[in-house]
């Protein structure tokens, strides 16, 4: 059959049908046409590369093309293999990093508008959200601080769901507040809504069962300050009205 092409495979003569594409490894192939092998077609992609995944240009990898012999033979692209667990592809671009050891942030994905950090305690990538693990506060989102247990916790004034979400104090109404004795700048930072001369505190209303509401701390004449507070009874009536001041 003069339409077939022959190939000497180490001393063994092989015949291939018209239109067959025969690969030489993954380097090149030739096509059989009318009994004659055509020109060598080289592999167009012979190196591995990074590919976009997980929102990061290095979040996945793409291997070099492979050659597939056959009547429908050609070079095949393996496509992009996306990495997982917020990790990037390795430097040889043929696999993903298994972890970010040792405390190597460059092995973590860095999507636009976000940053992931490697926590040294478990060599896992985190992005600083509430209750994520952290080595320091720079690895936590704005408004969060890395606490002594290496967890990102919400600062006063930040949103929360439970008390344990907050760096200090409690989560009384979906916002972290500070307990008495904490440094503060405005009333709203304090659990008792009372920031007096830079410290959260509770004003005693004397005997009885009272709920206390406090007025705003104000500066007068630029130097001297005063505070007005009300104590209300169970019927929400005003029981005590007080005023406190401090010297210039």
Folded structure, characterized:
This protein has strands at residues 5-9, 12-16, 21-24, 28-33, 36-37, 41-42, 49-53, 56-62, 66-68, 74-76, 81-82, 117-119, 124-126, 144-146, 152-154, 195-196, 199-200, 211-214, 218-220, 224-232, 238-246. Strands 3, 4, 5 and 6 form a 4-stranded antiparallel β-sheet that branches. Strands 18, 19, 20 and 21 form a 4-stranded antiparallel β-sheet that branches. 0% of the residues lie in helices and 34% in strands. 24% of the residues are buried.
Q: What's a quick, concise take on this entry?
A:
0% of the residues lie in helices and 34% in strands. The chain is mostly beta strands. Strand 7 (49-53) and strand 8 form a beta hairpin.
Through-space gap between termini: 112 Å
- Number of DSSP strands? 21
- Poorly predicted runs are 216-223
The total count of helices amounts to 0
Averaging pLDDT over every residue, what do you get? 87
- Principal-axis shape: rod-shaped
Could you give the order of the helices and strands?
EEEEEEEEEEEEEEEEEEEEE
The proportion of residues forming helix, as a percent range, comes to under 10%
Q: Describe the sheet with the most strands.
A: 4 strands, antiparallel
Beta-strand residue fraction = 25-35%
The gyration radius over C-alpha positions equals 35 Å
How would you classify the helix and strand content by structural class? Answer: mainly beta
């Amino acid at each position: 059959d003069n339409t077939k092409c022959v190939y000497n495979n180490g001393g063994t003569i092989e015949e291939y049908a018209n239109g067959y594409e025969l690969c030489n490894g993954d380097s090149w192939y030739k096509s059989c046409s009318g009994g004659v092998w055509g020109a060598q077609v080289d592999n167009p992609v012979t190196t591995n590369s990074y590919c976009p995944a997980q929102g990061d240009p290095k979040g996945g990898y793409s291997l070099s093309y492979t050659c597939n012999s056959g009547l429908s033979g050609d070079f095949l692209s393996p496509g992009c293999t996306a990495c997982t667990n917020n990790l990037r592809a390795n430097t040889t671009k043929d696999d993903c990093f298994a972890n970010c050891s040792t405390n190597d942030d460059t092995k973590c994905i860095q999507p636009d508008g976000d940053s992931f950090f490697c926590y040294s305690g478990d060599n896992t990538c985190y992005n600083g959200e509430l209750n994520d693990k952290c080595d320091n506060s720079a690895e936590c989102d704005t408004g969060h601080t890395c606490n002594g247990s290496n967890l990102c916790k919400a600062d006063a004034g930040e949103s929360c769901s439970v008390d344990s979400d907050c760096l200090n104090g409690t989560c009384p109404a979906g916002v972290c507040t500070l307990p008495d004795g904490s440094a503060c700048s405005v009333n709203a930072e304090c659990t008792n809504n009372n920031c007096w001369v830079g410290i959260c505190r509770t004003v005693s209303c004397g005997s009885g069962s009272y709920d206390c509401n406090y007025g705003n701390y104000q500066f007068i004449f630029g130097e001297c300050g005063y505070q007005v507070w009300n104590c209300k009874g169970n019927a929400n009536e005003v029981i005590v009205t007080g005023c406190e001041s401090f010297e210039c």
